[in-house]
Write a structure and sequence with these properties.
765 residues; six-stranded mixed β-sheet; Aldehyde Oxidoreductase, domain 4; seven-stranded mixed β-sheet; flat
Amino acid sequence: MRASISRRAVLAGAGGLVVGFMLTPAIAAEPEPTAAPVAADDIAADQTGSPPHDAWLRIGPDGRATLFTGKVELGHGLLTALAQIAAEELDLPVDHVTVISGDTERVPNEGATTGSRSIETTGAALRQAGATLRALLVDRAAERLDVPADRLTVRDGVVTAPDGRSLAYAALAADAAPRSTAPRRADAPAVRPKPAAERRIVGTAVPRRDLPAKVTGAARFVQDIAPDGLLYGRVVRPPRYGAVLDTVDADAVKDLPRIVVLVRDGSFLGVLAEREEQAVQARAALRRATTWSGGTTLPAPDRLWEHLRTAPAQTHVIDQRGDDVASAPAGAVALTASYRKPYVAHAAIAPPAAVAVFDDGFLTVWTASQDVFALREALGAALHMPASDIRCIHAETGGSFGQDGADDAALDAALLARAVPGRPVRLQWERDETFAWSPFGPAMMVDLAGQVGRDGRIATWSHTVWSNTHAMRPGEADEPNLLAAWQLDGTAEAAPPRTAPATAGGGAERNAVPPYDLPRRRIVEHRVLDMPLRVSALRSLGAFANVFAGESFMDELARAAGADPLAFRLAHLSDVHARAVLEAAARRAGWPGRRGGNRPGLGIGFARYRDDGAHVAAVAEVAVDRRSGAVRVARVVIAVDAGTIVNPDGAAAQIEGGVIQATSWTLREAVRFDATGITSRSFADYPILTMPEVPSVDVVLIDRPEAPSRGVGEAALGPTAAAIANAVAAATGARIRELPLTPARVLGALAASPSQSTPEKRRRG
C-alpha cells in the first residue's frame, strides 16, 4: 500500500503539536488547538464498505506522543503493535507512546476492528502519519538550528545537529504559536516511512503493554467497571425466537430485597437491583412469572442441510474461468463431494456485559463492541435519540471472536439506565442466554466437483457454497440489528440479510476461490435468505468452511491422481509465497514426501486469507483411537508469510490462538437446537477444547520486511481445520466431510464401506 497525505496540519497550544492525516477521501473537522484531537463525527465511511483510514498523533509538552485510534484491543496485542509503528516512525522509545482507543468522543472513526485488517490499514496509515510528523519536527529543528534538515539525526525524541547541538521534541512541540499551521516547504523531499534496514522497533518482540495487568488480575474488564452508585441489571429473555411477552406478574419480585425497578417495553423485560445476586434472583423469579405467545419453529436438525439447499436464496457467480467446467479431457477422473460445517457459537469465556448511564439526556456506554461508532448510531436509532447525545467507550472483555452479544448488551444496559437517570447500570448476561441469544457463525454446506486429467493435473474445478449471511452487525442494512431493538414497541424489524462487502473480504464466499492455478473453475454462492437461527460474523467468516472443504477436496484429488498431497499442491501453484509457506511447514513437520500418500496421521492445509492477506500452511499430526473414535491432535506446524511482521511474539500468539480455536471447532463445537430453540446453553452441552487437549503449536514466521504487513488474527483457522481433517483421513483411510469430527462420526466412517468413505468417482472416456 502506497500512502499519500491528503491533509496535513500542525496545531500548537495546550495540547502540544498535533498532526491529522487521511489516506482516503473524507471530510474531517479541524480539531481545536487546545484539546485532544476529536475527529469522529464527520469522517465519512467509504461507500464500498472499506472505511477511511484516519488517525491523529499528538506530541505533548513533555515530548511524548499520544496516538488516538478508533481500533480497539481484543486481546490480540493490536495496541502494542500500533504503538511500535508510531514509535518507529517518530524515533521515540515505544514506552513514550500512549494509545487512546475506542472512545467516540476522543478518537477518529476507523471502522470496526475486524477481518484481520487493522495492521494492514491503520498500521499503514500510521506509518505515513508518523513519518510526516517526524519530518515536520525535523523541519522546525532545522530552522531553529540553522542546519539543513537532511543533516540532522533523530534518536529517542531528540534532534541532533552535526556539531552536537540538539533539540528535544518537547521544545519543538511547545515552540509554535497558537493555531499556526506549518506545512512543509514546497521544495522539501517527499515523506516516506523508514526503510526496513533502519527500523529498530518494528520487527522486535516488544512486550505487550496489556499483559502484566491481565496476568496479575489488575486488569479492568467491562464486567469489572463499577462507578459509585452502580445498579446491577438482568434481562428476561423469551423462551424461543420470535415469542411475544403477554403478561408479567410484578408481584413475583416485590418481596425480594433491594429491587429498584422493573423495566418493560414491549417484549423487553429487565430488572435492576442494588446488588448483583439480587438481580440474578429477580431474573429467575420473573422467568417463572411471565407468559409468552408465538415464536419461530426451527427446522429439524436432521433436515438442516436440506433446508439450506432448498430455502430461498440469492445466487451469485463469484468467479468464472474457462469454458464449461463439466466437460473434461478423455480419461479424466471426475470426483464430487459435499462438506458441511454446523452453526458455531462464539463461546467466549466471559458473558456479554455493558455499563451505561443517562445524565441530563446524554448516554454514556462502556462496551466491548468491536465498532463503537456503528454501535453509537445503532443505539441512537433504537432509542430514538441523536447519536451526538451518545458516547461509546470500549472496554475489554474475556473473548470476542466476531459479533457476539457485546453490542446487544449495550442496548440492554441503556434501556435499563434510561429508567434510572443519573445512576450507572451494569448489565450482564447469564451463560444460558449467552448461548441461546448471541449470534452464531452460520452453518455452511459446500459442494465440490473436479476432474483430474491423465497428466495428473486438475482440469476443472467447481465450488458451490450455501450459507446464511455473515454480516448482521449493528448498522448493517441501516437497521440497529440489536436483540432488544426487535422486542421494543414501535421499533424496527430485523434487517434483511446482506452479504459482507467484497472489499472487506466477503462473507460466505470468503476463500471460496481456490488459490491454485486452475484453467477452468466456477465459484457460486447461494446466500440463503431464511435465517432460522440468529447469525452474524464469527472469526474468519466463510473462510473456515471454504478452506476446510477446498483443501479436503485437494487431498481427495491428489489421492485420485496417485500423488503426494504436498507435491500435488505445489504442482498447481506458481505463487512463490504460497510455495514458500507450504515447503516451510512441510520441512519443519518432517513431511515424508512419498508418492501415493503421506504417513498415517499427517495432513496438510493451505490458504491465502481473504485471497489478499497472509499466506498460511498447516501440517497437523493426529492420533485416532479406533475403539473410541476419539481424535487427538498432537502437533500443528504452521508457516505464515504476513509481509512485515511488526511484533513476532504478537503474530505468533495470534496464530497459536487461531490454531487452538480451529482445533476446537474441528473436533468439538456445534450448536444444538430443536424445533423450539437452542438446546446447547452451557459449556456442558457445548463442549470446547480443554487445556489438556491443546496441541503443540510450532509457528514458522516468514518475515518480509520490505512488504506490506498482513493481518494474521484469522488466517490460521481454515488451514488448521483442513490439515486436521486430512490427517484423520490419512490415519484411518476414511474421509469425514462433516464437522465436527466427533468420536461418533469417526466410528461411523471407520465402519462404513470404502465406497461410502470416498467421493463419487468416475473416469471419462
